[in-house]
Every structure is written in structure tokens, then in C-alpha cells.
Write a structure and sequence with these properties.
The chain has 4 helices and 8 strands, in the order ββααβββαβαββ. The protein is α+β, with helices and mostly antiparallel strands. The protein has one domain: 3-Layer(aba) Sandwich (Aminopeptidase). It has an 8-stranded mixed β-sheet, with helices on both faces. A hairpin with a 3-residue loop joins strand 4 and strand 5. It is globular, with a radius of gyration of 15 Å. It binds coenzyme A. The site of coenzyme A has 23 residues, from strand 5, helix 3, strand 6 and helix 4. InterPro entries: Acyl_CoA_acyltransferase (IPR016181), GNAT_dom (IPR000182), N-acetyltransferase (IPR051531). One of its GO terms (molecular function) is acyltransferase activity, transferring groups other than amino-acyl groups.
Length: 172
């Protein structure tokens, strides 16, 4: 379990499914990420199991890191953070929070912790994110975190990259 000023952050597991579903079961969550993040609690449990299983054997050195984020004051699950790390020392990051908790700096606080963890604990270098151009809150958030816009196609082979996306790098 990791702590920031207002958040508790822990590796995701299937016991988080109900709380995470309650936070993310809202059509606004999927607006810019290609559809709903979750459809049912059972589907979310399966997805969490899939994430825990990690990348396919073809990519044994890649790592999937997923955390659930709670509000420290009451323990309520408010969102999740994810990173895929690659063997030559870089990572791709993303975050999904429930609309009830938007606009209070929680995603920024969680993402700052994740960046520090990836850099400090895991020794990773450049970090990347791909974002739909209409996703103004995510673009703003990345800029606040110090990410810089890069001209697609990205220098790194981002798994989450779609042709229309904007690409951001936080240089090492
Ligand atoms: C993107 C997301 C994580 C932001 O969460 P959040 O907790 O509201 O983020 P924060 O409060 O830390 O910061 C959001 C910033 O965007 C700004 N913002 C919010 N809505 C905005 C909008 N419609 N247009 C422009 N800026 C906006 C906020 O003012 C804030 O900037 P500020 O710190 O300068 O005031 C959240 O909207 C989300 O989960 N969306 C659905 C999933 C998603 O799209 N994930 C990103 C995939 S790339």
C-alpha cells in the first residue's frame, strides 16, 4: 500500500472489482477511450485476472502494473492507474477515474505518485501516453505533469496508440 496526501494506492486485485465498478460505471468514462472501461462486475473481475496474468509469453520482459486508487479519508475506490513497462527502460501510462471524483486533482496526485514510483523505485526513463485529441482533461493533466507533445507516429511502439491520437512524452 502506498500513500500520498489524499490517496491510498495498492496493486489491483479482484476484490476491488465492486468498488471500482461503482466508480467507473458511467458513460462519461468511456467517451474518449473507445467505449466503457467496464461493462459488468463479472467482466471487470475477468479483466483484473487478465491484467494480473501479465503480458503474453511473446513479451516475457514487459510488465503490466495496475493499481487501484482510494480516497484516504474514507477508503472509497475512485479510480485506477496503469503502466506497461518495457525492457529497454521506458513505460506507457494511463489513468481512469470515476466522474464523481473528477476535477479535484486526484488523477494528478495519483499520476505524480506513479511517475515517481516508475522512476524512483523501478529506475525507468522516458514515459509516454497516447490521448484522443478531444480528451481535454487528459491533455491538460499530462501537460500539468510535465509531459510534452510529440508528433505522431510515436518514437516508441505504444500499445494504446490509435492513428488519431496525440502522443506525449515525459523525457527521462
Ligand atoms: C482524465 C481524467 C483522469 C482526469 O481526472 P481528474 O481527477 O479530473 O484530473 P485532475 O483534477 O487531476 O486534473 C484535470 C485537469 O484537467 C482540467 N480539465 C477538466 N476538464 C476539462 C475540460 N473539459 N477541458 C479542459 N480542461 C479540463 C482540470 O481543470 C484540471 O486542470 P488544472 O489542474 O489545471 O485545473 C478523468 O477525466 C478520466 O478518468 N477520464 C476518463 C478516462 C480517460 O479518459 N482517461 C485518460 C485516457 S488517456
Amino acid at each position: 500500500m502506498h500513500r500520498t496526501d489524499r490517496l491510498l494506492i495498492e496493486p489491483i486485485d479482484r476484490t476491488h472489482a465492486e468498488g471500482l465498478f461503482a466508480a467507473l460505471d458511467d458513460p462519461r468514462v468511456g467517451e474518449h477511450i473507445g467505449g466503457p472501461d467496464v461493462t459488468t462486475i463479472e467482466a471487470l473481475r475477468e479483466r483484473i485476472d487478465h491484467l494480473a496474468a501479465g503480458p503474453r509469453p511473446e513479451w516475457p520482459e514487459d510488465r503490466w502494473l495496475n493499481w487501484v486508487v482510494r480516497r484516504a479519508e474514507d477508503g472509497v475506490i475512485i479510480g485506477r492507474l496503469e503502466a506497461t513497462t518495457y525492457p529497454d527502460g521506458w513505460a506507457e501510462v494511463a489513468y481512469v477515474f470515476g466522474p464523481a471524483y473528477w476535477g479535484q486533482g486526484y488523477a494528478g496526485e495519483g499520476a505524480r505518485w506513479m511517475i515517481e514510483h516508475l522512476r524512483g523505485e523501478l529506475g525507468l526513463g522516458d514515459l509516454w501516453a497516447a490521448v484522443h485529441p478531444d480528451n481535454a482533461a487528459s491533455v491538460r493533466l499530462l501537460e500539468r505533469l510535465g509531459f510534452e507533445a510529440r508528433t505522431p507516429p510515436p518514437r516508441r511502439p505504444l500499445g494504446s496508440y490509435d492513428d488519431v491520437d496525440l502522443v506525449f512524452e515525459l523525457p527521462a
